[in-house]
Amino acid sequence: MGLSISIYLTYLNYSTDTCPVGVECTRYPPVLGLIWFAVTPAALKWKNTRIAWQLSGLIGIVVLVMLEIQNNYFCPFCTSAHISGLFMISLSVKFTREI
User: Fold this and answer.
1) What is the pLDDT of residue 44?
2) Averaged confidence pLDDT in the chain
3) Which pLDDT tens digit goes with each residue over 41-85?
4) What are the backbone angles phi and psi of residue 14, rounded to the nearest 5°?
5) How would you write the chain as a 3-class SS string?
6) What is the C-alpha to C-alpha distance for residues 23 and 77, in angstroms, rounded to an integer?
7) Per-domain residue ranges of the chain
8) How far apart are CA 70 and CA 88, in angstroms?
9) Neighbours of 64 (CB within 10 A)
10) CA–CA distance, 66 with 88 (Å, rounded to integer)
């Protein structure tokens, strides 16, 4: 789900000048989300990269949510991607503990 949301947001960012929700945002977060969601399955296969990848996603989500709060805006598309990312991170942490 996170990958499809990131694809959609990346498409919107580069095909139109504004977000459909009316939020002013940069073009980089959707692309970074797209890359993160696309690479996650491969990154989680190796124990050496798993924790670093989980942390990179968590840090990215925290930074973006802080920017939303600081700029006083809310984007349901971005929030859906953040929730999907947190869900993937929590699943991978659970999976890591079981190994």
Assistant:
1) 83
2) 86
3) 888 888 888 889 999 999 999 999 998 899 888 888 889 999 999
4) -100, -10
5) CHHHHHHHHHHHHHHCCCCCCCCCCCCHHHHHHHHHHHHHHHHCCCHHHHHHHHHHHHHHHHHHHHHHHHCCCCCHHHHHHHHHHHHHHHHHHHHHHHC
6) 11
7) 2-98
8) 26
9) 20
10) 20
